[in-house]
Write a structure and sequence with these properties.
5-stranded mixed β-sheet, Phosphatidylinositol Transfer Protein Sec14p, two-stranded antiparallel ribbon, CRAL-TRIO_dom, globular, phosphatidylinositol bisphosphate binding, 2 domains
Length: about 375
């Protein structure tokens, strides 16, 4: 029996908050992937618990399962695990709008904007699918989108196989257009990257982007300055040719939208799993955290992270305008090959793109 077959049902149980006995295969994988020593695991959990409890300004959840998630996410480095816990609680305290009850996020899952697939890929990773073009800003805000991402990743991180094998993210940019792009500026990009890279106990093994367009290229140009080199190296762009993706994540576990054979994306099953864990998730969010606002500043390098990201955002001027200029020039070149009526429509589109892009940049780009 494979490690996936042995442990996969854990994603389907109502709660998965206790530590399971790992299969021999997973024990070996845990040592290779996250530096976990089976004979030392209890000692490591207790050591982190004592460190966390000595943080007088922090009232953290301290059960074994919670601490083990953070240890695995940071390769059993106590200091890094503690820092991640602090970052998580800082995020929660400073952004309460991102930690609303899961039932308030049903509008996001109803549009099939994101889901975790029921089956893992052959190498054992969990598959997280984001359909960026399904985000309808008229139905839910960017913060609701991020909140749904956070609760999805928190739920996924409750699964021990995911903690050990990691997560593969597939971002489908089909139908991603101006209505999404105009609401995705540097401040949103910075927030998103900071959360997935610095605040949650989840390991992204790879990020695959498919069906990207010119507007999607602009979105990733905005995102790029905030990505760490490690995270940047994990991103692969596939366009509409999915054979390379299917060599990693086989078509027999993928939905039709990604060239798979498992029917259409079903976000309802994932939302139901999140709701099944709502009590556990809500308890952690409501009952734990920093004891007072002043203690947030005890996260020594959070402000340095903010300053670093702000400096990186200054490079967006050249990158963003370069992509926008190329887009407008392509439209102008196209207009010369069309009939007068069609050419007029393209020129209007080019002008609108330039104006919208300029206003978008002026309103979204951070200022000193």
């Amino acid at each position: 029996m494979s490690e996936t077959e042995t442990t996969e049902p854990s994603l389907l149980r109502a709660e998965n908050i206790s530590i399971s006995k790992l299969t021999p295969e997973l024990i070996q994988r845990a040592e290779a992937e996250v530096n976990e020593k089976e004979n030392w695991k209890e000692r490591d959990i207790q050591a982190l618990r004592e460190i966390v409890q000595n943080e007088v300004s922090l009232h953290s959840q301290s059960d074994d399962a919670f601490l083990l998630r953070f240890l695995r996410a940071r390769m059993f480095d106590y200091d890094k695990a503690l820092h991640l816990i602090k970052q998580y609680y800082y995020l929660k305290a400073n952004n309460p709008e991102l930690f609303v009850p899961p039932k308030q996020l049903k509008c996001v899952f109803d549009t099939k904007t994101m889901t975790v697939l029921p089956k893992k890929c052959p190498s054992g990773e969990t598959i997280y699918v984001v359909s960026a073009g399904h985000w309808n800003p008229r139905r839910f805000t960017f913060d609701q989108l991020v909140a749904a991402s956070i609760v999805s990743l928190e739920k996924a991180a409750m699964d021990e196989v995911t903690q050990i094998n990691g997560l593969i993210c597939i971002i489908d940019m089909t139908d991603f257009g101006w209505q999404q792009l105009r609401r995705f500026g540097p401040s949103q990009a910075k927030k998103m990257v900071h959360i997935i890279d610095e605040c949650l106990p989840i390991r992204f093994k790879a990020i695959h982007v498919i069906h990207e367009s010119t507007l999607a290229d602009i979105a990733f140009t905005i995102l790029k300055p905030f990505l760490s080199e490690e995270l940047r190296q994990k991103i692969t762009f596939h366009g509409s040719e999915l054979s390379a993706l299917h060599s990693i994540v086989t078509a027999d576990i993928l939905p039709e939208e990604i060239g798979g054979h498992c029917g259409s994306i079903d976000a309802d099953q994932w939302y139901e799993q999140i709701i099944s864990s709502e009590t556990y998730l809500t308890e952690n969010r409501e009952n734990y955290g920093f004891k007072k606002v002043a203690d947030f500043n005890q996260i020594s390098d959070f402000h340095s992270i903010e300053n670093s990201l702000f400096r990186k955002s200054q490079t967006l001027t050249q990158n963003f305008l370069s992509v926008l200029r190329r887009t407008v020039l392509e439209l102008l070149e196209l207009s010369a090959k069309l009939t007068p009526m069609a050419s007029k429509k393209v020129l209007i589109g080019a002008s609108a793109a330039a104006v919208v892009g300029f206003l978008f940049y002026k309103t979204q780009c951070p200022r000193q």
